[in-house]
Amino acid sequence: MRYEPSYLNLYEQGHLKQLADDLEERAFSCSLCPHNCGVDRSRVKNGRCRSGLLPVISSWSPHFGEEAPLVGRKGSGTIFFTNCNLSCIFCQNYDISALGHGKEVSYRDLAMMMISLQEQGCHNINFVTPTHMVYAITRALLTAVSRGLHLPLVYNSGGYDSVETLRLMKGVFDIYMPDFKYSDADTGYKLSGIKNYPEIAKGAVSEMYSQVGDLETDEAGVAYKGLLVRHLVLPNNLAGTRDAVDFLAGLSRNTYLNIMDQYRPEYRAREHLELRRRVTLEEFDVAVNHARGAGMKRVGRF
Ligand code: SF4
Q1: Which atom of ligand 1 is closest in space to residue 33's alpha carbon?
Q2: Does any ligand 1 atom lie closer than 6 A to the CB of residue 48?
Q3: Residue 249 CB contacts under 8 Å (≥ 6 apart), including other chains
């Protein structure tokens, strides 16, 4: 039996249109994310994410480098949004997140990308860095559903998300895949320019979990619903991995946790002595062993 995403219900009941209107309204004095910039994005692009109203896309295609339950046999249908509400000095996609490389598209174009990815056989539509573009996604979804979209939607964010906005969007996304980047607020400020990252990310991830629960997969191991968290181990324990893992284990020991070892010093990382090297095998093993020791059952490199 095919999984039926709950956005189809929202569409049938007419709620999706209202939601798109409500979210767009919030962009006119922008409070879509915890920065609460208050700027009118229909007129200026001087909020923290430097984004106007229309989405800017850097790329879209079936992607085979995501986590195995998203990739399956035919790939995850990724759509990469340009710009970001974080300013990570080690960002590996800084040309997209910080330098703004991408192309502005209409809501209809965005809808047609979703349809095309579905037609190419992708298992899901995976919105990368969606936080500042949630109204655009919802607006485009109206068109996409009318043209037959039925795939699960993935919300693939940096974890700095507003609980209020997430609650408004309940039912739109089937899979949440946030980062949990830091458990120390000072480190979050130093490396991403965010003063309250751990507090906000904990609230956001808890809300996501309350909406979708643990990750669920079909008989082929392909995910259709639930929470999947990414944690990038940083050199010299800058990510505060133990506390991050303890928080996630407290949420659910069945949380699907991808502990990542692929950090490399990119962008402005070399300005910080502690960030100038890759993670050692030992540092990575300590992180994974701690997660397993905390009782987490779905942990590793995926
Ligand atoms: S989405 Fe952008 S403009 Fe809106 S509050 Fe967040 S950073 Fe500011």
Answers
A1: 6
A2: yes
A3: 255, 291, 294, 295, 296
Cα angle: 188, vertex 190, 194; to 5 degrees: 45
- Using most ligand atoms within 8 A of CB, pick from 85, 157, 161, 197 the residue to mutate for ligand 1: 85
Ligand 1 pocket, 49 CB below 6 A?
yes
* 86 close to ligand 1 (CB < 6 Angstrom): no
State if residue 26 touches ligand 1 by the CB under 6 angstroms criterion.
Answer: no
Q: What H or E segment, with its residue span, contains residue 41?
A: none
- Ligand 1 pocket, residue 52 CB under 6 Å: no
Just give the CATH number of 56-233. 3.20.20.70
pTM over 0.70: yes
131 with 33: CB under 8 angstroms? yes
* Sequence spans of domains, the chain: 56-233
Return the half-sphere exposure (C-beta side, CA atoms, 13 A cut-off) of residue 183: 13
Determine the Cα angle at 59 with ends 57 and 62, to 5°: 130
CB of 32 closer than 6 A to ligand 1? Answer: yes
Per-residue tens of pLDDT for the chain, all 302 residues: 678 999 999 999 999 999 999 999 999 999 999 999 999 999 999 999 999 999 999 999 999 999 999 999 999 999 999 999 999 999 999 999 999 999 999 999 999 999 999 999 999 999 999 999 999 999 999 999 999 999 999 999 999 999 999 999 999 999 999 999 999 999 999 999 999 999 999 999 999 999 999 999 999 999 999 999 999 999 999 999 999 999 999 999 999 999 999 999 999 999 999 999 999 999 999 999 999 999 999 996 66
Distance (Å) from CA 280 to ligand 1 centroid? 36
Residue with tokens 């507090």: 199
